[in-house]
Design a protein that fits this description.
It contains nine helices and 20 strands. It has 359 residues and is α+β, with helices and mostly antiparallel strands. Strands 6-7-8-3-9-10 form a six-stranded mixed sheet, with helices on both faces. A five-stranded antiparallel sheet has the order 13-12-11-14-20. A five-stranded antiparallel sheet has the order 15-19-16-17-18, with no helix packed on it.
Length: 359
């Protein structure tokens, strides 16, 4: 296994007497994009600034490329190998070209090389025509492209991205996320990406941490985070629409049957003993829905219900279905499927799509 590019061990941050970041470990490998997700006030920017060496640590240490920062590697030398993009572009007065070249100038890069690198990155980010434009005349999307160019022109080994697209409109945000993903892949550049949008995380990250109140609740591959949350709180933070309570009624190895509001639900993988109260989840796109009487996939875990509500959800529709007296399931259905409130439907829950959480 290759040596991590950045390894933070047991780092924590205090503000006065208050511990705002609990001790945690973070590892970023060369070329890897690691996401950090959490609600407002979770401490995401604090963790990013700690990793970037911008805040004094209350405990722990940083190792960059095998060297301990502050001992084997001077903090200034570490910061020369990293760069950051923040939510607000924070551009200086002057032209776009001046802003993008500034970091190179401060690092003593010769003028001819500055000009070549600035022109290359402005072209790569599709803003070459803005070279002589004053930054005060830029749109939000243009300004953030300039901010990205100013960071990437330094060709850092590791880039920190602190919700850089949060203030942009959706079309601009989607385009920039796609372009940044392509750049990071092309350049094999490692990144630590703070976001409150899991769609952005899905486009950029292979692994993600969930943070709340300064504490890491889960670190896993993004697919596991979305489909196998470690706890009910992680499921809530990541927007899991179906968080359901049940009791284990049958146990046979890893296969369980749950009593869910009087319905028997089979799960192919999970843990629990007969009589245990458990919480299980299933994403709406894994819930198969059809008009009552139609077949909807495998025969097990099939239930009848009635539509309570239908809402548009992008190019699909999110359908709330009441099962029994008290349980409601959220299912995604294609727009062409005609479903209306009060309509009788059949839903199927594939056993392999169900996940029983640890708590």
């Amino acid at each position: 296994m290759s040596q991590p590019l950045l390894h933070a061990e047991g780092i924590s941050i205090r503000r006065g007497r208050r511990l705002v970041l609990e001790p945690c470990d973070v590892t970023i490998s060369p070329g890897e994009v690691v996401g950090l997700y959490g609600p407002n006030g979770a401490g995401k920017s604090t963790l990013l600034q700690a990793l970037a060496g911008l805040l004094p640590l209350a405990s722990g240490h940083l190792c960059f490329d095998g060297q301990r920062v502050g001992r084997d590697l001077a903090a200034v030398a570490y910061r020369r190998q990293i760069a950051a993009v923040f939510q607000e572009p924070l551009l200086l007065r002057g032209t776009v070209g001046y802003n993008v070249a500034l970091g190179l100038s401060l690092r003593g890069v010769p003028s001819p090389e500055q000009a070549s690198r600035v022109a290359s990155w402005l072209t790569r980010l599709q803003i070459g025509h803005l070279m002589q434009r004053r930054v005060g005349t830029l749109s939000g999307g243009e300004a953030q492209r300039v901010s990205l160019a100013r960071t990437l022109v330094l060709e850092p080994h590791l880039v920190f991205l602190d919700e850089p697209f949060a203030s942009l409109d959706a079309p601009t945000r989607f385009r920039l996320v796609d372009e940044l993903a392509a750049i990071l892949t092309e350049r094999r550049m490692a990144a630590f990406f703070v976001t409150h949008d899991l769609t952005e995380a899905s486009a950029l990250c292979t692994r993600c941490l969930v943070l709340e109140h300064g504490r890491v609740l889960q670190e896993s591959a993004l697919k596991d985070l979305l489909h196998r949350p470690r706890s009910r709180r992680v499921a809530e933070i990541t927007g899991m629409e179906n968080i359901l309570d049940a009791t284990v009624s049958v146990q046979h190895g890893d296969r369980l049957e749950l009593d869910w509001d009087g319905q028997q639900v089979r799960v192919t993988a999970g843990s629990g003993h007969i009589g245990n109260r458990v919480t299980f989840t299933v994403r709406p796109h894994d819930v198969h829905l059809a008009p009552d009487g139609d077949e909807t996939g495998p025969g097990m875990n099939r239930f009848r219900g009635h539509v309570e509500r239908v809402r548009r959800h992008g190019y699909t529709q999110l359908v709330s279905v009441r099962i029994g007296q008290t349980s409601v399931l959220q299912a995604l259905a294609p727009m062409h499927l005609a479903v209306t409130p009060g309509m009788a439907v059949t839903v199927t829950l594939p056993p392999q799509a169900l996940w029983i959480m640890a708590d």
